[in-house]
């Protein structure tokens, strides 16, 4: 029989996903409830899942045998026999969190809670190209693994890249800053080299996840993480989950048009982009102009010493009372505020966390940013809104990349493909 012809413009139905056993879904749910929601007894887990005690107990026993869960003693009795409590064994495996910046590389070996066990960071120009960058990263990873020969088994790698990433394929797509990176097979390269599963995301999404799990956004269901470094980007968390969008590029605010009549050309080829006004790259360009003209005596002094001026120089100059530096940071905050006010009105977060190198300007950047956000956003949207500087911006990307891998590993699609590699522990007392 000839298949029916689709109408022009019709969307084809999605390909059917391979069926996985219902037991995999239950196992992943139980691990998540113990790991993230602090439900520790069989009765709690039965109530949360709506499943019978026998089925839940069987799956718990299997997860204890594989080493992902462990008994940790007796809970409080409510009249009968005291229940045995469970815990997630964060020490059962290790993952690598890799943060690729435009001007730096960072790698963290963490446990399954994202707690760093070993860290290596170094300056690096990712404009050197993807092959050279991953050659360097592989050397860093080899050194970290060699430094901890008795660690738990390596079970996954998470990578954050400073460009748009198609999350489903793990490949960068048309990076405006990184020539030669388009469609580079990051996942395939690291999987072949280290023989573990690899997840790749935009670095700001990784930072948002790190902030959600270990930073100021813990307990916040709806928040925005904004990275202001060499470039600019945002990670969106909605209902407690990272929102990547259909292709994985949600939150790419760098190219929001701040001024359609601008003559400033962005690296993407368009004019008036936020990145050309408030990024570290834009601020460095403005700082060089202020130093050359003599409008900023402090920046001129630094430039005369042969230094290539950065956003950090602007922050230090402003902190020392340099008027031009103060005005430059206030202007960057003003432009960021306009972009974020639009996000606040559309997304209605309860928290905005500012991270990245430019965030080190702290109180020199925030006043003008907050002023515009509160003036330009709806009163209801800002009634309980907090705008803060990240408390651990230097580690959010590494930790978030590691947790991206952990979330993938503990999903129903992957849980049973690797958990047999773990060694169960003797029951806790």
From TrEMBL:
<feature type="region of interest" description="Disordered">
    <location>
        <begin position="1"/>
        <end position="22"/>
    </location>
</feature>
<protein>
    <submittedName>
        <fullName>ROK family transcriptional regulator</fullName>
    </submittedName>
</protein>
<dbReference type="InterPro" id="IPR043129">
    <property type="entry name" value="ATPase_NBD"/>
</dbReference>
<dbReference type="InterPro" id="IPR036388">
    <property type="entry name" value="WH-like_DNA-bd_sf"/>
</dbReference>
<dbReference type="InterPro" id="IPR000600">
    <property type="entry name" value="ROK"/>
</dbReference>
<dbReference type="Pfam" id="PF00480">
    <property type="entry name" value="ROK"/>
</dbReference>
<comment type="similarity">
    <text>Belongs to the ROK (NagC/XylR) family.</text>
</comment>
